[in-house]
Amino acid sequence: IEETLVLVKPDGVARGLTGAILARIEAKGYALVDIRLVEPDRETLERHYAEHEGKPFYEPLLEFMMSGPSVAIRLAGNRVIEGFRSLAGTTDPTTAAPGTVRGDFGRDWGLKVQQNLVHGSDSPESAARELEIWFG
Ligand code: GTP
Ligand code: MG
Protein backbone atom coordinates (compact mmCIF):
# COMPACT_ATOMS: atom_id res chain seq x y z
CA ILE A 1 0.00 0.00 0.00
CA GLU A 2 1.28 3.44 -0.94
CA GLU A 3 2.16 6.04 1.71
CA THR A 4 2.59 9.80 1.57
CA LEU A 5 3.65 12.62 3.87
CA VAL A 6 0.98 15.20 4.54
CA LEU A 7 1.67 18.36 6.54
CA VAL A 8 -0.96 20.70 7.89
CA LYS A 9 1.28 23.75 7.74
CA PRO A 10 1.48 26.48 10.45
CA ASP A 11 -1.31 28.54 8.86
CA GLY A 12 -3.67 25.56 8.89
CA VAL A 13 -2.93 24.75 12.53
CA ALA A 14 -3.10 28.40 13.64
CA ARG A 15 -6.43 28.93 11.89
CA GLY A 16 -7.94 25.87 13.54
CA LEU A 17 -8.41 24.00 10.26
CA THR A 18 -6.63 20.77 11.25
CA GLY A 19 -9.91 19.01 12.03
CA ALA A 20 -11.61 20.13 8.83
CA ILE A 21 -8.63 18.95 6.77
CA LEU A 22 -8.45 15.60 8.60
CA ALA A 23 -12.19 15.16 8.08
CA ARG A 24 -11.72 15.40 4.31
CA ILE A 25 -8.82 12.95 4.39
CA GLU A 26 -10.81 10.46 6.46
CA ALA A 27 -13.97 10.90 4.40
CA LYS A 28 -11.94 10.06 1.30
CA GLY A 29 -11.04 6.78 3.00
CA TYR A 30 -7.29 7.10 3.49
CA ALA A 31 -5.74 5.57 6.60
CA LEU A 32 -3.91 7.54 9.28
CA VAL A 33 -0.81 5.48 10.04
CA ASP A 34 0.91 8.03 12.26
CA ILE A 35 0.22 11.64 13.22
CA ARG A 36 1.98 14.17 15.40
CA LEU A 37 2.42 17.82 16.18
CA VAL A 38 5.88 18.99 15.14
CA GLU A 39 7.96 22.14 15.45
CA PRO A 40 10.66 21.53 12.86
CA ASP A 41 14.10 23.10 13.17
CA ARG A 42 15.81 24.82 10.28
CA GLU A 43 17.92 21.79 9.37
CA THR A 44 14.82 19.61 8.98
CA LEU A 45 13.20 22.22 6.73
CA GLU A 46 16.36 22.66 4.64
CA ARG A 47 16.27 18.92 3.94
CA HIS A 48 12.54 18.92 3.24
CA TYR A 49 12.69 21.91 0.86
CA ALA A 50 16.13 21.24 -0.68
CA GLU A 51 14.69 21.42 -4.22
CA HIS A 52 13.69 25.06 -3.63
CA GLU A 53 17.04 26.37 -2.32
CA GLY A 54 17.97 29.61 -4.06
CA LYS A 55 14.44 30.48 -5.15
CA PRO A 56 13.08 33.88 -4.05
CA PHE A 57 10.48 32.33 -1.75
CA TYR A 58 12.91 29.90 -0.10
CA GLU A 59 13.88 31.98 2.97
CA PRO A 60 10.34 33.26 3.59
CA LEU A 61 9.14 29.67 3.21
CA LEU A 62 11.52 28.41 5.91
CA GLU A 63 10.60 31.32 8.21
CA PHE A 64 6.91 30.60 7.70
CA MET A 65 7.39 26.91 8.41
CA MET A 66 9.17 27.82 11.69
CA SER A 67 6.45 30.29 12.73
CA GLY A 68 4.40 27.69 14.60
CA PRO A 69 3.63 24.00 14.86
CA SER A 70 2.58 21.81 11.96
CA VAL A 71 0.76 18.50 12.02
CA ALA A 72 2.67 15.73 10.25
CA ILE A 73 0.69 12.76 8.97
CA ARG A 74 1.80 9.43 7.56
CA LEU A 75 -1.10 8.61 5.27
CA ALA A 76 -1.75 5.32 3.48
CA GLY A 77 -3.98 4.12 0.68
CA ASN A 78 -4.10 3.04 -2.91
CA ARG A 79 -2.82 5.97 -5.06
CA VAL A 80 -2.74 8.19 -1.96
CA ILE A 81 0.07 10.42 -3.29
CA GLU A 82 -1.95 11.49 -6.31
CA GLY A 83 -5.19 11.40 -4.32
CA PHE A 84 -4.05 13.75 -1.60
CA ARG A 85 -2.56 16.20 -4.13
CA SER A 86 -5.99 16.22 -5.73
CA LEU A 87 -7.69 16.93 -2.39
CA ALA A 88 -5.17 19.70 -1.66
CA GLY A 89 -5.56 21.58 -4.93
CA THR A 90 -2.96 23.52 -6.88
CA THR A 91 -0.19 25.52 -5.20
CA ASP A 92 -1.66 29.02 -5.58
CA PRO A 93 -4.61 29.18 -3.17
CA THR A 94 -6.29 32.05 -5.00
CA THR A 95 -6.85 29.96 -8.11
CA ALA A 96 -7.00 26.46 -6.58
CA ALA A 97 -10.30 24.83 -7.49
CA PRO A 98 -13.23 25.19 -5.09
CA GLY A 99 -13.81 21.85 -3.38
CA THR A 100 -10.11 21.49 -2.61
CA VAL A 101 -8.49 22.37 0.73
CA ARG A 102 -6.53 25.24 -0.79
CA GLY A 103 -9.44 26.39 -2.95
CA ASP A 104 -11.95 26.41 -0.10
CA PHE A 105 -9.80 27.69 2.77
CA GLY A 106 -6.85 29.48 1.19
CA ARG A 107 -6.24 32.84 -0.40
CA ASP A 108 -3.40 35.26 -1.07
CA TRP A 109 -2.62 37.23 2.09
CA GLY A 110 -0.11 39.51 0.35
CA LEU A 111 2.83 37.89 2.13
CA LYS A 112 6.20 36.89 0.71
CA VAL A 113 5.31 33.23 0.68
CA GLN A 114 2.15 31.52 -0.38
CA GLN A 115 0.43 30.19 2.72
CA ASN A 116 -1.49 27.28 1.29
CA LEU A 117 -2.36 25.23 4.37
CA VAL A 118 -1.05 21.79 3.43
CA HIS A 119 1.83 19.89 1.92
CA GLY A 120 1.66 16.53 0.18
CA SER A 121 4.52 14.54 -1.32
CA ASP A 122 4.57 14.76 -5.12
CA SER A 123 6.01 11.32 -6.08
CA PRO A 124 6.87 7.95 -4.53
CA GLU A 125 10.52 9.05 -4.32
CA SER A 126 9.55 12.29 -2.54
CA ALA A 127 7.23 10.41 -0.20
CA ALA A 128 9.95 7.98 0.88
CA ARG A 129 12.46 10.80 1.35
CA GLU A 130 10.05 13.06 3.24
CA LEU A 131 8.62 10.31 5.48
CA GLU A 132 12.18 9.54 6.57
CA ILE A 133 12.77 13.23 7.38
CA TRP A 134 9.57 13.73 9.41
CA PHE A 135 9.04 10.28 10.95
CA GLY A 136 12.50 8.68 10.81
P1 GTP B 1 3.88 21.56 -1.20
O1 GTP B 1 2.86 20.47 -1.12
O2 GTP B 1 3.90 22.47 0.01
O3 GTP B 1 5.24 21.08 -1.60
O4 GTP B 1 3.31 22.50 -2.35
P2 GTP B 1 3.46 22.34 -3.88
O5 GTP B 1 4.09 21.03 -4.23
O6 GTP B 1 2.12 22.66 -4.45
O7 GTP B 1 4.43 23.52 -4.17
P3 GTP B 1 6.03 23.53 -4.32
O8 GTP B 1 6.63 22.25 -3.83
O9 GTP B 1 6.32 23.97 -5.70
O10 GTP B 1 6.41 24.72 -3.35
C1 GTP B 1 6.52 24.51 -1.97
C2 GTP B 1 5.90 25.68 -1.25
O11 GTP B 1 6.60 26.88 -1.56
C3 GTP B 1 4.46 25.97 -1.68
O12 GTP B 1 3.51 25.17 -1.02
C4 GTP B 1 4.33 27.43 -1.32
O13 GTP B 1 4.14 27.58 0.09
C5 GTP B 1 5.71 27.97 -1.67
N1 GTP B 1 5.78 28.46 -3.05
C6 GTP B 1 5.90 27.70 -4.16
N2 GTP B 1 5.94 28.44 -5.28
C7 GTP B 1 5.83 29.73 -4.85
C8 GTP B 1 5.83 30.98 -5.55
O14 GTP B 1 5.93 31.06 -6.77
N3 GTP B 1 5.73 32.10 -4.80
C9 GTP B 1 5.63 32.05 -3.45
N4 GTP B 1 5.53 33.20 -2.80
N5 GTP B 1 5.63 30.89 -2.75
C10 GTP B 1 5.73 29.74 -3.44
MG1 MG C 1 5.98 20.37 -3.42
TrEMBL record:
Q: Does the keyword Nucleotide-binding apply?
A: yes
Q: Where is the Nucleoside diphosphate kinase-like domain?
A: 1-136
Active site, per annotation: 119
**The protein's Enzyme Commission number:** 2.7.4.6
The GO terms this record gives for MF are:
ATP binding; metal ion binding; nucleoside diphosphate kinase activity
A single GO BP: CTP biosynthetic process
Residues binding ATP, per UniProt: 9, 57, 85, 91, 102, 116
Cofactors demanded by this protein: Mg(2+)
Describe the reaction catalysed, as an equation.
a 2'-deoxyribonucleoside 5'-diphosphate + ATP = a 2'-deoxyribonucleoside 5'-triphosphate + ADP
Keywords attached to this Swiss-Prot or TrEMBL record, sorted alphabetically, are: ATP-binding, Kinase, Magnesium, Metal-binding, Nucleotide metabolism, Nucleotide-binding, Transferase
Q: Which protein family is named in the record?
A: Belongs to the NDK family.
For this entry, the protein name equals Nucleoside diphosphate kinase
